[in-house]
Design a protein that fits this description.
cytoplasm, KCTD7/14_C, cell membrane, BTB/POZ domain-containing protein KCTD7, 3-stranded mixed sheet, 4-stranded mixed sheet, membrane
């Protein structure tokens, strides 16, 4: 028998009693976790790869050993196939890499046996090696032509102030003049000089130096700007004016710009006494 006392009697005051809906809410079972919640709670299992890995690189198919892809630990390929990252597969089950596969065979050949590509493919393979972060391949490619020569060339151009800015100025001036004149070509004057100070029959550099020992006041007497569109120089290196001209033409040609140049004289600006500028001036013809 259950005895109900007055103290346990439910009061009619709503503030002193819990409603039936509140009671039901308190005793509801926990909701089933959603898929998103479950994914956050449970870590994903590492992806497993077979010993022989079929690959689809930008639509080109390759097959190699898993150990080949993991040859060097610090590469992107080793990280991709470490199991820590998910690699999608195509309809045939090949692991897909969204990259042009034209030179991927050269990448695999180096990972397999250290083979290097032929000279005509060195630049393109170097670009792919940069993408996949294959340091040993990059080091090997930098020691052979044409990259070895390019490395030396860039070291020389590093001595040239505002070299890239001057190249852009040549392009912009030539483009503007061609459009204004409604012509397929444009001409502009370019000064390329190695020595900072002028050389005349009355003055020669001492001790094979490129600079002259002058006071600051004397130096200002020789400061001027030649009447040209773009001026390169001065610089201190063994490479001469013709080396820099070759670099300028090469870099413009690499951007698809046809350029012819010829020396049309020297700057005849009078400086002081018997000193004249005498910096060589070249005419550049840019054809679009």
């Amino acid at each position: 028998m259950v005895v109900v006392t007055g103290q346990n009697k439910v009061s009619g005051n709503p503030d002193d009693a819990m409603s039936s809906s509140d009671a039901e809410d308190d005793f509801q079972e926990p909701a089933t976790p959603t898929a998103t919640q479950a994914g956050q709670a449970l870590p994903l299992l590492p992806q497993q790869f077979p010993e022989v890995v079929p690959l689809n690189v930008g639509g080109m198919h390759f097959t190699t050993r898993l150990s080949t892809l993991r040859r060097y630990e610090d590469t992107m390929l080793a990280a991709m196939f470490s199991g820590r990252h998910y690699i999608p597969t195509d309809a045939e089950g090949r692991y897909f890499i969204d990259r042009d596969g034209t030179y991927f065979g050269d990448i695999l050949n180096f990972l397999r046996s250290g083979d290097l590509p032929p000279r005509e493919r060195v630049r393109s393979v170097y670009k792919e090696a940069q993408y996949y972060s294959i340091g040993p391949l990059l080091d090997n490619l930098e020691d052979i032509q044409p990259l070895k020569g390019e490395k030396v060339r860039q070291a020389f151009l590093g001595l040239m102030p505002y070299y890239k800015d001057h190249l852009e100025r040549i392009i912009e001036i030539a483009k503007l003049r061609a459009m204004q004149r409604k012509a397929r070509f444009a001409k502009l004057k370019v000064c390329v000089f190695k020595e900072e100070m002028p050389i005349t029959p009355y003055e020669c550099p001492h001790f094979n130096s490129l600079r002259f020992e002058r006071s600051e006041s004397e130096t200002k007497l020789f400061e001027h700007h030649c009447e040209v569109d773009v001026s390169f120089g001065p610089w201190e290196a063994v490479a001469d004016v013709y080396d820099l001209l070759h670099c300028i033409v090469t870099d413009l040609s690499d951007r698809g710009i046809t350029v012819d140049h010829q020396c049309i004289g020297v700057c005849d600006k009078h400086l002081i006494n018997h000193y004249y500028c005498k910096r060589p001036i070249y005419e550049f013809k840019i054809t679009w």
